[in-house]
Design a protein that fits this description.
single chain; 235 residues; mainly beta; twelve-stranded antiparallel β-barrel; 1 helix; 5% helix
Amino acid sequence: MTWKPWPIAAATVLAIAPAQAQHAPDIAEPMVFDLVRPLGARRGELEVNTLAQHSLSGPDRSVEWAPEIELAVADGFAVELELPITGRRVTDFKLGLQGTFGTINGGRGIHGVQYLGLWNRARRQWESSLLYVIGNRFSPRFSTLSMIGVGEVSAAGAEARGLIVNHTSFYDISDATTAGVEVNIRAGHERATLIMPQLQQDVTDRFQIQFGLGAVRETGTAWHPRIGARVVRQL
């Protein structure tokens, strides 16, 4: 078991994404590929949430869910611990690190970097991803959040690496309700495409429910309908 990639990544994220005290634009998070707290998070912000997903057809009909806890340990720098679960079995242990570069475009945009490290229990292998994150608010109702990077940047070798792109367009229906369309593309040896229209509803200032119905296609399979939901509680 090799743990070297994640402390190197942590030092890199801290070095290139110093703490930010700037006011961040209000941009929602994608439901499936969420952030480690929003970019520009302030020290002490704490959140727990759980994502559940299920394909309605196809060979794999198991329920996938992932409880996680997120903490902003400094202004502009957050840490996440997650337990991906399939059925009742914990499949991985996941660590997320995220730093904020700062605001751009006159304060209407913000960007940063995200590192994700995952220890797969079946393969007994550490997998790493590094992504650039950028969000923009174009109008009082319309905003976007995009992530682009490389999956498997650690010791598995170049043949295992692949491009990761996640883009979500949001439309604020009201102060408490946001609609979005999330598109996730993973290229490389294992290819997958997910399209997930979603609705996010603020129940209170600290409690949110997200729901999505879309479709997924993986290597060697046809498109399958997929549902997802995330419950978010800020502490």
